Amino acid sequence: MICLEQVSKTYGKSGKKAVDSMTWNVEDGKITGFIGPNGAGKTTTLKMITGIIRPDEGRITVNGHDIQKEGLEAKRQIGFVSDSPDSFLRLKGIEYLNFMADMYDVPTQGRQERINEYARKFEMEDALGSRIQSYSHGMRQKIMVMGALMHQPPVWILDEPLTGLDPKSAFALKEMMKEHAAQGKSVLFSTHVLEVAEKLCDYVAIVQRGRIVFLGTLEELRAKFPGEESLENMFLELTKDE
């Protein structure tokens, strides 16, 4: 479980908060979609949960481990895919996967079997011997997903993970997300595609100007807008400028 307690983050001298007193829990055994307009605070929130940036206020725990006080153990709980796959470009795909496995102390025995499994699911078998800089955007996205999952983390945090994926790979990742949640583990992912959230998520958290404006199931969201069938219209109503 991921727990945020009164978490805030301010950028620049203006004093405007990118994330403002955010409190919510990402439940185990569920897929939680994190939805909001550009600039609403989604990526900042995910980077604070993963320990990439520090909150100015509040507390974040991942499976009971404080991300600031027990950073190493908290990060071991997490598999994180950022919104940019343009990293480690000079490494070959297989070198990157082994690097990630080494970082998380994945035993050599059985490691190759895991690599082969992910490569098969994402149709990357023939690409692992090439440098990541030669990959297409979608292939880079797939190798980053594979690397994030090498240590089989209980908590998945994915920032726009489906962007650039071909339909078959996107389907494979969505099925993996469902299987992971079915095992009682956590999946948190951000998306701009409301149809994906509608079909995939058990819960949705909608953020606007750094604040959670809705947290619950899609059934609970529809109950707030009786007679409205369009998820897009509900989203626009919740995130419209005041």
TrEMBL record:
Keywords: ATP-binding, Nucleotide-binding, Transport. Pfam families: ABC_tran (PF00005). PROSITE patterns: ABC_TRANSPORTER_2. Residues 2-234 form the ABC transporter domain. GO terms for molecular function: ATP binding; ATP hydrolysis activity. It comes from the Bacteria. PANTHER family: ABC TRANSPORTER ATP-BINDING PROTEIN ALBC-RELATED (PTHR42939:SF1). This is ABC-2 type transport system ATP-binding protein. It comes from Cuneatibacter caecimuris.
